[in-house]
Specification:
Blueprint lengths: L9 H4 L19 H7 L3 H11 L23 H9 L6 E3 L6 H5 L9 H24 L7 H22 L3 E2 L14 E2 L1 H15 L14 H13 L1 H5 L4 H14 L22 E5 L12 H7 L20 E3 L1 H4 L6 H6 L51 E5 H13 L7 H15 L11 H12 L5 H7 L33 H6 L10
Antiparallel strand pairs: 1-5, 2-3, 4-6
């Protein structure tokens, strides 16, 4: 199922929600689900589709509509993931600098009034109550595959909470059991949110389907999220859980039925819905699910007709915003000619013509190399350019699972095999045309670098740097870290984003993260 279409009937069940008050979670229901199903047997599919779409789309009526009271173009969930996970880290920078974007791209001067922090926070607390609303109704009605549908909804709620745990470290724990609460919910700690998500994912492991329609959660998808939660458990709770991360990522690898796509670039092309590697995508479609916040933001934002041919990448517009830094392409070579000469196909996915290797001014388009990893045209084929991207975003994919296994093994996780880890890493490198490495090369520093070579611009980098102890402080510097050309130390405060001021005003039980 390439397109999870939105059904207008779902709006009757899932009412508008403003996240300045997380407690306003009472569903706005004009018809009971029984009545909806009597009128339209596909209503449950539409409602589920709406929940899935909340991670990539801005609203129900096209790219100009918004489910929340934030800018429709700027606020979609996936756009927030890229802004907060990639631009705050080492590999990617944005040149626009509008209304707080500079604060992200220079990891400096963060404060609770930055709208980009608010956008992601609000998207979490839009999706969570919508899941709660549906879960509450599902308890009282009979629908086909009710147990599996319920498990999917619980997964989507966990996915939203995962980003709350990772980015903000705390919040409120809203569930179907406290819908309609008249009093503000208490603040929940990072540990409490972690425990809830862990318990939910463990509870639904047996009821998520082994296979599901493309773009919907199955057992492997739930296990992948659980493995990621455990992978970062030491950061989130202070207690390492690498043994558990390995247990669940091994299930993904051994039982999921996925395989590395033989062509790296296919995973990021317009027809990537046919890739054997993608475990869980956020779906895009140039006609059905248009959004300025799905991969349109990544593709168009990385192109500029002044130095590039847009049609080569299936696009009709180039926004000239995003460029990589040498912290990313320097993992392959220390010059443009070195990138061109590299046997590693991933090194070829930067536009170097007319651009400088050094980013001496992050606001200058020709400083730094734009990434051409994501594109809107089909792999190896001529495609008609479209204004919006139809390339799905691979939120979870097998190469990431292989690297998680390797990291856990190198960290000494019980049940891990160094030889198996080496095999997985070399499968990834062989696919890219890179030379094989030996067991002696397989260090944590190498794993971090390989994650950069393989996964950069996919929403992982900030989390990875924090887990490896490289994000804050001065032991690892990158261009414009701390708003200094060659980088400078930044405080540990920056391991979390500030709680948005409007959220704190909406719930007096919320407290600000330290240092803000």
């Amino acid at each position: 199922m390439k397109n999870l279409k939105l059904f207008s009937v779902c709006i009757l069940l899932l009412g508008a929600f403003s996240c300045t008050n997380e407690l306003d979670t009472k569903p706005k229901v004009e018809l009971s689900l029984d009545q909806l199903l009597a009128q339209d047997p596909n209503a449950i599919t539409g409602i589920i589709s709406k929940l899935y779409g909340s991670f990539a789309l801005s609203g129900p009526n096209g790219p100009g509509s918004s489910d929340i009271s934030d800018d429709a173009g700027e606020s979609p969930f996936l756009r927030g993931i890229i802004n907060l996970q990639e631009f705050t880290a080492d590999g990617m920078k944005n040149r626009w600098g509008d209304d707080g974007l500079d604060q992200l791209t220079t990891t400096s001067n963060w404060d609770q009034n930055n709208k980009f922090f608010r956008y992601l926070y609000n998207r979490v607390y839009y999706t969570v109550p919508q899941c709660n609303n549906l879960l509450a109704v599902l308890k009282t009605v009979n629908v086909s595959d009710k147990e599996a549908v319920t498990a999917e909804v619980r997964f989507l709620r966990c996915l939203a909470y995962y980003y709350q745990i990772d980015c903000f470290g705390k919040g409120v724990l809203a569930t179907e059991d406290n819908i309609g609460s008249s009093a503000p919910l208490p603040e929940s700690t990072r540990q409490q949110l972690f425990t809830f998500v862990e318990s939910e994912l463990l509870a639904i492991e047996s009821t998520l389907p082994v296979s599901n329609a493309y773009g919907r959660a199955n057992k492997a998808v739930g296990r992948m999220l659980l493995a990621k939660l455990y992978l970062n458990a030491e950061v989130y709770t202070g207690t390492p859980r690498y043994d558990d991360a390995l247990t669940y990522i091994k299930k993904v690898i051994d039982e999921g039925g996925y395989s590395l796509d033989p062509h790296f670039l296919h995973v990021f092309s317009g027809d990537n819905n046919t890739s054997s590697e993608i475990i869980y995508p956020l779906i895009a479609d140039p006609l059905v699910s248009q959004s300025y916040g799905n991969t349109t933001y990544i593709v168009n934002g990385s192109l500029n007709s002044a130095t590039m041919t847009l049609s080569d990448y299936g696009a009709t517009a180039g926004w000239g915003g995003h460029r990589a830094t040498k912290a990313w392409y320097g993992l392959f070579a220390n010059s443009a000619s070195g990138l061109a000469a590299s046997s590693d196909q991933r090194a070829q996915l930067f536009w170097t013509g007319g651009h400088t290797y050094e980013m001496t001014d992050y606001k200058e388009w020709t400083n730094g190399f734009p990434s051409i990893k994501f594109r809107n045209n089909d792999y190896g084929q001529a495609s008609t350019p479209t204004a919006f991207s139809g390339t799905d975003f691979p939120l979870f994919r097998l190469a990431d699972a292989y690297l998680i296994y390797a990291e856990c093994a190198v960290r000494g996780a019980a049940g891990g095999s160094t030889s198996q880890a080496l095999d997985y890493v070399n499968q990834i490198r062989s696919r890219a045309g890179a030379s094989a490495v030996t067991a002696g090369d397989l260090t944590l520093d190498f794993i971090l670098d390989e994650r950069g070579r393989e996964l950069m611009f996919e929403g992982h980098r900030r989390t990875d740097l924090i887990r490896f102890g490289k994000f804050t402080g001065g032991s690892y510097l990158w261009p414009w870290k701390g708003n200094v050309l060659n980088g400078t130390s930044i405080p540990d405060t920056y391991k979390l984003f500030p709680i948005p001021q409007r959220a704190m005003e909406g719930n007096p039980n919320l407290t600000q993260n330290p240092g803000y």
